[in-house]
């Protein structure tokens, strides 16, 4: 179905994480499909989704570590049991809603996704995803692998040749971190597949999705690290200009967002 803004229509703004879910927050699982059904039954034409990329400092999707990747928090784990990538016992590992937090949900999902990855066999669909995503996926997966290998330190604190994104250094690092690169490809493959399926389901029921661009990117992100010439950085890779607003009625000193 083709969607346009040329006629009056109504919709609802709701981020996926605001839906219920057994693993700390809502995701691309059954509750999202149920919400699409609710919107269609209520005569709503639009679901405004907000950003779905991995969050950055302060857990803000508007300063994400990537403008192109999808958040692991939004990957539904339940389909993985149907595919034999998770056991029912593993899937039953849930978060106590009273103790749920961003960190707890992220750690639980990452642990289960890594377990599923050990049972994953690449498919033609996976190969197609990698081919479609070549313009951003290699930098993102290497950035994430290096980030983990460097105790989550900012890329400006990595080895100088890696911080400068030097091709030969990247080639050596990619070879050493090959398993980690494939894991992050697997993670993004799952997100891509589930996201496309939900979009198709919604479109078939007359519900269009309105996204929201991650209008600012964190300095410590795959996008800045991989495209340093496109940003205002000094010789050490530090930003010389950051976002914010001047003093106004709401803040006597203004706001320094830092992105």
Description of the structure:
The chain has 259 residues and is mainly α. The chain is built from ten helices and seven strands. The two termini are 37 Å apart. A three-stranded parallel sheet has the order 1-2-4. It has helices spanning 30-41, 78-82, 88-91, 102-117, 124-132, 137-149, 160-163, 167-176, 178-204, 222-226, and strands at residues 11-13, 46-48, 63-64, 208-210, 216-217, 244-245, 255-256. The mean pLDDT is 92. The longest helix is centred in the last third of the chain and has 27 residues, at 178-204. α6 (137-149) crosses α9 (178-204). The protein is globular.
Strand order of the largest sheet: 1-2-4
Q: How far do the termini sit from each other?
A: 37 Å
Low-pLDDT stretches are none
Percent in strands:
5-15%
- Record field, number of beta strands: 7
Number of helices: 10
Percent range for helical residues? 40-55%
Structural class: mainly alpha
> Could you state the oligomeric state of the chains shown?
single chain
């Amino acid at each position: 179905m083709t969607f346009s803004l040329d006629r009056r229509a109504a919709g609802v703004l709701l981020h996926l994480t605001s839906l219920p879910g057994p693993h700390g927050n809502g995701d691309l699982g059954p509750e999202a499909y149920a919400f699409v059904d609710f919107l269609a039954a209520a005569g709503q034409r639009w679901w405004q989704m907000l950003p779905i990329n991995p969050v950055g400092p302060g857990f803000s999707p508007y300063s994400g570590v990537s403008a192109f990747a999808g958040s692991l928090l939004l990957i539904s784990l339940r389909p993985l049991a149907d595919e034999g990538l998770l056991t029912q016992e593993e899937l039953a590992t849930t978060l106590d809603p009273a103790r749920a937090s961003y960190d707890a949900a992220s750690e639980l999902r990452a642990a289960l996704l890594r377990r599923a990855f050990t049972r994953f066999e690449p498919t033609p669909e996976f190969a197609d995803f990698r081919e479609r995503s070549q313009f951003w996926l290699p930098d993102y997966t290497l950035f994430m692998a290096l980030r983990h290998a460097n105790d989550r330190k900012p890329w400006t604190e990595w080895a100088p040749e890696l911080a400068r994104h030097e091709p030969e250094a990247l080639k050596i690092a990619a070879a050493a971190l090959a398993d980690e690169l494939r894991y992050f490809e697997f993670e993004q493959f799952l997100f891509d597949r589930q996201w496309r399926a939900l979009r198709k389901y919604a479109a078939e029921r007359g519900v269009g999705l309105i996204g929201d661009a991650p209008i600012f990117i964190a300095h410590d992100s795959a996008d800045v690290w991989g495209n340093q010439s496109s940003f205002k950085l000094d010789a050490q890779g530090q930003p010389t200009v950051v976002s914010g607003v001047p003093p106004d009625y709401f803040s006597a000193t203004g706001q320094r967002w830092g992105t």
